[in-house]
Design a protein that fits this description.
Elements: H1 14-25, H2 32-40, E1 51-52, E2 74-75, E3 84-85, H3 87-102, H4 122-129, E4 136-138, H5 142-153, E5 162-166, H6 171-183, H7 188-191, E6 192-195, H8 206-216, E7 220-226, H9 238-247, E8 251-255, E9 274-277, E10 292-295, H10 341-348, E11 372-374, H11 381-390, E12 393-394, E13 396-398, E14 401-404, H12 413-425
Parallel strand pairs: 2-12, 5-6, 5-7, 7-8, 8-9
Antiparallel strand pairs: 1-3, 4-10, 9-10, 11-14, 13-14
Helix pairs in contact: 2-12, 3-10, 5-6, 8-9
């Protein structure tokens, strides 16, 4: 978090660290000066310059009488759409130049041949996902990938046909579950097994998931949960839940849309069967950009049904146009069509020193990522959202819940200070 931190910081809570720094600097934690000092000592501060931060004056709904239109907005919405890395334009220009100069020869020649345009993205994703060789594939978008993975991994029988998922899963996930269940001839009302928080609680307890598996695990074909829950920001215990579900014979998949690039993942070590993810949130690839999949190596040799396409063929024989597919190894064999060179360029445009990044730990480092979801009792969340927008804050509202995400790559402590300061003074 700071150059003043040492190894002992690993054993302290964020509050302990802040208290120590406040005492050392003789500055109040709630002061602007404290936020400024945190920024001055932040080892990540240079990364902000690698992103375009929207100016207040360019945003809709801003009341320009409240703020300087030339100042940076307080962008706390990276959990919905990450900011544009400045390297994106350069990488896209390189591919466009190759296309202009080489035409069809760009498939196998040029700076990054089109036929291999997804491969430069793989090393970063392997590290972020905790994956091994051939376990990560770049393809499609999130919900499409859910469907393709369920073709192979959701194989219901008369005795085992249920899908266990969390309450308030992202709606598109549930649409996919329902349609897959109906496609196989089952009833969503019977096959969907929803785990809910306890009464008067917002987050789902791991022990409740384990208890539900104990009670009904023998009838569950697929456990499919979110790594980080999009509505509450809760980080699920992926390792524990995966291990428990597999003991009951369940296949386990994870939606990592809000987890990849946000929290540490060790999918291979945790023995996760498969996972899907998008790339436009914490990976900053742009709205609707290409997604990806993870398939564990212990699934490589198993005979599963596939929906095939030519990009799932082995690289070496893909352009021989054989009538029978020679499926690529692992996740590569699940690919369908050639990916967009432009989308791969934006996904590859990570900051130049990306792997100096560590998650900035929130209050409970075992239970959260960068996202903070909150509600203020007695305050209309939509009204508060509107007032914050008018003051140049980019954030998100879902029902009565405000969601913000200070992204370590480009948000500063001063962003947090300015945001909290506005929360204190805005009247709704």
């Amino acid at each position: 978090m700071s150059n003043d931190c040492n190894a002992k910081c690993q054993q302290l809570t964020p509050q302990d660290i802040l208290n120590q720094l406040s005492e050392k600097w003789n500055v109040s934690i709630t002061s602007e000066e404290f936020a400024r000092k945190l920024d001055e000592n932040d080892s990540l501060r240079s990364l902000r310059d690698e992103f375009y931060v929207p100016k207040v004056g360019g945003l809709p709904k801003v009341d320009k009488s409240r703020t300087d239109s030339q100042s940076d907005s307080i962008y706390l919405c990276g959990h919905s759409l990450g900011l544009q890395p400045k390297r994106v334009q350069k990488l896209i220009d390189i591919w466009l130049k190759d296309w202009a100069n080489l035409g069809v020869y760009g498939h196998v020649h040029g700076t990054n041949p089109f036929a291999n345009c997804d491969y430069p993205c793989i090393p970063t994703l392997k590290t972020l996902l905790g994956a091994e060789d051939n376990e990560v594939g770049i393809m499609n978008q999130l919900t499409t990938n859910i469907h393709f993975m369920m073709v192979s991994f959701y194989r219901p029988t008369s005795q085992r046909f249920k899908i266990l998922y969390e309450e308030r899963a992202f709606p598109s996930d549930e649409y996919a579950f329902r349609s897959q269940i109906q496609f196989h001839g089952y009833s969503p009302e019977q096959a969907l097994l929803k785990i809910k928080p306890r009464e008067k609680e917002d987050c789902i307890r791991t022990e409740d998931i384990l208890e539900l598996l104990k009670q009904q695990g023998q009838s569950v074909a697929l456990v499919f949960l979110s790594g980080v829950q999009y509505y509450t920001g809760q980080l699920f215990d992926i390792e524990t839940i995966t291990r428990a579900a597999q003991q009951y014979g369940c296949i386990v998949g994870w939606d990592l849309a809000h987890a990849v690039g946000n929290v540490p993942l060790k999918l291979h070590d945790w023995n996760v069967d498969f996972a899907v993810f998008c790339s436009y949130k914490y990976l900053n690839s742009g709205a609707g950009c290409i997604g990806g999949i993870f398939v564990h190596s212990n699934q490589f040799d198993k005979e599963y049904p596939h929906f095939d396409g030519w990009w799932g063929n082995r690289d070496e024989t893909r352009f021989q146009m054989n009538t029978e597919i020679e499926r690529g190894l692992g996740a590569n064999g699940f690919r369908i069509s050639n990916p967009s060179i432009h989308q791969c360029a934006t996904l590859a445009a990570k900051p130049s020193n990306y792997f100096k990044i560590h998650v900035l730990t929130p209050n409970d480092p075992e239970q959260r990522g960068a996202q903070l979801s909150f509600r203020i009792i007695g305050v209309d969340a939509r009204q508060l959202f509107n007032e914050l927008e008018r003051s140049g804050v980019c954030l998100d509202v879902r029902g009565d819940v405000i969601r913000v995400a200070p992204i370590p790559l480009y948000n500063s402590f001063m962003d947090v200070y300015r945001f909290v300061s506005l929360l204190k003074i805005i009247k709704v």
